[in-house]
Amino acid sequence: MLENLDLTPSLSKEEFKEYITPLEDRLRDLQREIVDKKRPVLLVFEGMESCGKGDSIRQVVSPLDPRGFKVYLTRMEMNEEELLRPPLWRYWLNIPGKGTIGIFDKAWYFPAIAQRVQGELSDHSWSNRKDEIKQFERQLVDDGTILIKIWLHISKKEQKKRFKVMEKSAYEGWRVTQENWEEHKQFDKYVAAADEILVETDTPYAPWTLVPATDRRYRRAVILRAIVETLERSLGAPPKPETKISAVPASTETRHIAGLTVLERVDPTISISPEEYREQLNASQQRLRELEFACYAKRIPVVIVYEGWDAGGKGGNIKRVTDKLDPRGYNVIPIAAPSGDEATHHYLWRFWRHLPKAGHFAIFDRSWYGRVMVERIEGFCKEEEWKRAFYEINEFERHLAHFGTVIVKFWIHISKDEQLRRFEERKTIPHKSYKLTDEDWRNREKWDIYATAVNEMIERTSTNYAPWTIVEGDCKLYARVKALNTIVDAIEGKL
Questions:
Q1: Ranges assigned E (strand) in 298-353
Q2: Can you list the positions of beta strands (E) in 193-344?
Q3: CB atoms < 10 A from the CB of 327, how many?
Q4: Cα–Cα dist 356/404, whole Å
């Protein structure tokens, strides 16, 4: 793509003035449409050092209301917080909400290119990174984000010329570092890696705009025109029709035995005696505490997900998991309906924000699976959106697994009779009565509908890197021990 790019075009001052004013006026109008239509817009500026990204961004934001955009400068070197999480974590934190514009000066591309050139990414890791980037961008676009990717390109000779001019400046000399000159020596390698990733990520939903950046006026005009035309096309397009996505299971455990569903094959009444419980509980808790420190030493992150029927015993189960852990090493995240900023972003955004640092545990009391259960059943999202979520969730969890995360997912399964018994019990116990709400009773009336959704969820998102464990939950003692032992086994397997 870059090899055949003509870097010689230019514009005169007169041509530029005539060309740029209508574009700036139109961009100002389009910002109002972005707000009115509640569309997130993400502008990505990439390219070799000194290609003009900063100047181009200044030109773009000049006509805009500053309250409606944010500019993010991506550092090449990640800080400690970023190094301890998956590579895309820092970008997920800053994706724009509905009606706002996010502008990245370098994004998820150039750091990956640099790592590839410097030998920090093997062929396998490089392939994974490109796949993760494509999945990330597709998820944003599917959720309504207008994604505009711009690569500014200059020649090696032009870069050297600009470096020398900057070094002579009393104000800009500091910007040219020894690292920049080292990169310049490997200019061709950087371009080759860039060309490879540009080709593979030039997709119908997130195409690249390649901009010859030798001439400043030409560069500015082409970028502004590309942004205006893309926004006009995207904002003027009719709403996407709901797509009937085929249900392709991601799990090998998808065949119903003798016509039974996943849940129907489980006997939720399995139990153990109080004596067995006390003995096993203590041993498992002690072992999990040892493993917590081992995970910290080896910087292994652990994500534990709890889903299950209302009154299934998730809270008590989580309490037994954390009882003997060092509280500095874990975080429990209760998940409710999205509100505030959560409601204006992609549904996975809030979960990316809560991912644990490498060496720490994150325990989710309900999770991203609400998308394919309560949001699906209660009509809080469109059919297209919850059907799409199956493979988005698999991709999300695969990103975590690529980073080395241990993923443990529980469905706490109780019988319908046991749920009713617990509901009735809660009415009579003062310190538990607050847990029983009208919504619990309404959900109970939809038991069969929820069961259908749960079966599909388990079948389609149980993978070898993030398998589901169905926990027989009528006996809370048995459920607690099984959950603890499952976590212990998963971590020991990773270690």
A1: 302-308, 330-334
A2: 208-212, 302-308, 330-334
A3: 8
A4: 12
Q: What is the DSSP letter of 487?
A: H
* HSE, side-chain direction, 13 A CA sphere, residue 278: 2
The C-alpha atoms of residue 269 and residue 169 are separated, in whole angstroms, by: 77
Longest dimension (CA), the chain: 89
Confidence band of 1 (pLDDT split at 50, 70, 90): confident
pLDDT surpassing 90 at residue 369: yes
The residues, ordered by sequence, that sit 6+ positions from 452 with a Cβ below 8 Å of its Cβ are none
Q: What's the rounded Cα separation, in Å, for the pair 358 and 417?
A: 41
Give the E-state strand segments of 266-405 in sequence order.
302-308, 330-334, 361-365
- The answer, yes or no, to whether residue 243 has pLDDT greater than 90, is no
Cα separation of 297 and 274, whole Å? Answer: 35
Concatenated DSSP letters for 363-392? EEES-GGGGGTHHHHTTSS-HHHHHHHHHH
Query: Degrees (nearest 5) of the Cα angle 244, 386, 409?
Result: 130
| CB-based contact 23:225 (threshold 8 Å) | yes
* Alpha carbons 147 and 139: distance in angstroms, whole number: 11
Q: What are the strands of the beta sheet with 41-47, ordered from one edge?
A: 69-73, 101-105, 41-47, 146-153, 208-212
User: Of all helices (H) and strands (E), which one includes residue 468?
Assistant: strand 468-472
Q: How far is 433 from 430, CA to CA, in rounded Å?
A: 5
239 token code pair: 């709403």
- For residue 56, count other CB atoms closer than 10 A to its CB: 25
Average pLDDT over residues 324-337: 97
Q: To which residue do tokens 């994706």 refer?
A: 95
Query: Is residue 174 within 8 Å of residue 168, measured between CB atoms?
Result: no
Q: Which one, of 384, 210, 400, lies nearest residue 305 by Cα?
A: 400
Distance CA 399, CA 184 (A): 32
Q: Specify the pLDDT at position 493.
A: 97
- 155, with CB counted inside 10 A (0-12, 13-18, 19+), is middle
In the chain the first and final C-alpha atoms are separated, in Å, by: 43
